[in-house]
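Re: beginner question about structure tokens

> Can someone show what the tokenized structure looks like for a real chain? I only ever see the sequence side.

Sure, here's an example I had lying around. Input first:
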Amino acid sequence: MSSSSTPRTVSLVTLGCARNEVDSEELAARLADAGWEVAAQGDDADVVMINTCGFIRAAKQESIDELLVASESGAKVVAVGCLAERYGAELAAELPEAQVLSFDDYNDIGARLDDLLAGVRRPAHEAKDRRTLLPISPVDRQRPAPAVPGGFHPAGTPWRRRLSRGVVAPLKIASGCDRRCSFCAIPSFRGAFVSRRPAEILAEARWLAGEGVRELLLVSENSTSYGKDLGDLRLLEELLPDLAATVARVRISYLQPAEVRPGLIEAIASTPGVAPYFDLSFQHASGPVLRAMRRFGDRERFLGLLDQVRELAPLAGARSNFIVGFPGETADDLRELELFLSSARLDAIGIFGYSDEDGTEAEKLPGKLEDEEIARRVEEFADLAEELMAQRAAERIGESVDVLIEERVEDGVYEGRAAHQAPEVDGVTTVLSAAPLAVGAIVQARVTGSEGVDLTAGVPDPR
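And the corresponding structure tokens:
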């Protein structure tokens, strides 16, 4: 803890995915330990720290816009996260308003901000491929906690301070990715795949439960790879019952279809306390496009995978994201995607337009489409996705669903999420109940209506 008696305040703004939420809470804990007061987002602060996203073009632009807005507040501005890591000195040259820091600065983040307040600007790091920073041999990948985002203090104290008091929290089970999808730059700035030890994950889960968390959202760049570098690809299946014993519900995200195995499907579908929810990263349904993406599968295989899921859990939730406008994508490829979406009965569908990412293989592929054509395809498939998601929600009318209550709207009206609805991305369920319901409770309700992806459900009057 710093001995400085001068109050120093920092406001954290988190962009991007749930993995960044975990990183921001780790940063908040480190800063508080260093004597910094963590202010609520939007409050006046000495420093505004933007945890940036660097995944796709739109996310990068949002990060830059947030940095520019923060610079107008009069506070010192710090860029951390994926965009900062990915571009380093290049970003610093384009945005002199911000101090750009690397993941390697997280361990001493309080000192970095102290320097900034003292007028000492550190030169931004030169971006490098973080896959080269760990040995290729998985057995040698020993992650030095807590020097990597998402780490635990060696004594077991969580390096995390909750920035939201909601009943749901992400829990990172791994970092990095070993896949080589031709369109994706994430491994280059997040590094090679490294699983967290089960004991470490369970300790954090118990801490989160003590903080009032009722649902854990397991996050990583690729949850299906969990345990492979620890010598046991079935480790996630073995870990799920212990995690489910700590909270009311556990949900897994970021599953790679090519790596989904029968044992994992069975564990997700049948383990008490685990949501029967399958977040499958299909990306497309045309075999030729998927091969150009350096991925595997096609419409028939993906529909077969969904059949396996529904054979074990007929009411399971399923969601996926898709890229349209990939280099060389033809009318036949789009037809394959349309046929898949029309048959897949997905609860949630994300449609994204392809954009070149620096340093990726796809950046050099022939057959690039004009931005206007990509936008047209996005609009066409986004409209189709909206229609299909509304149809799938309507199919659920009459089903009995387990809803985690997250908010009391007014007397007799509550908002929450059924097991097939992940936080923020998959819609909500409005629950009507004559009896009062507690926030954080999981209640059984019957679906009575739908609007888009959102459901309305009723709890039977106990009288």
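Each token stands for a local structural state, so reading them left to right follows the chain. Residues 135-157 have pLDDT under 50 and may be disordered.
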